[in-house]
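Hi support team,

I'm filing this because I wasn't sure whether my run with adenosine-5'-diphosphate finished correctly. The job status page said complete, but I'd like someone to confirm that the output block is well-formed before I use it downstream. Pasting the exact inputs I used:
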Amino acid sequence: MAKRLPVIGLTGGIGSGKSTVSQLLAERGARIINADTVGHQIYQPGTEAWQEIVQAFGREVLNPDGTINRARLGEKVFSDPQALARLNAITHPRIYAAIEEQIRAIRADPPPGIRGIVVEAALLIEAGWTPLVDQIWVVVASEEKVIERVMQQRSLSREEIQRRIAAQLDSAERQRYADLVLVNDGSLEELKATVEKHWTALTQA
Ligand code: ADP
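And here is everything the job wrote out:
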């Protein structure tokens, strides 16, 4: 019988390098499930989540075409912990169920060449999605590296990036959940070598 595909939960703070690690793993035979993408899908007009969001936050969070305006919804929940909890209660269980279903489907009929599954989720720990995965990999980088890289990547100021870092789960706290911590303070080549080593160890075990 074929071996059960391992599922890695890949997480880390803003700019730590999650997407970069995902990309490297995808090139090495991982099937990536991106929680953000799943989140967008469960928000589509007419879905239950969409209906509950409109009920909870009003039609002012909608774009003219009926899709949810995530920026406006974000503004509503940004400095209101109760509103954020309400939104999370609508979306998180559905994202969980959708990811669970995707894992089931991939495992039931693994595409050729696929050696593992990666759930990339910035909120893996905060949202309580860890039961979905066999192992947790946490990507970390120093605050200076994060600021430097994110300033280059997007048009965010140093203060804005620091504000986002402060709003996240503390990095030390996140690492307490880690089966593996990937330190991404060096070059892309170094990151590639580290990822290669751990992925090979996992998938050839
Ligand atoms: P996350 O998905 O965690 O927000 P990304 O993978 O998008 O982070 O990385 C943030 C930025 O830093 C991207 O522009 C990425 O190309 C860059 N980056 C990531 N790791 C390195 C590295 N080791 N060296 C140089 N740039 C990097």
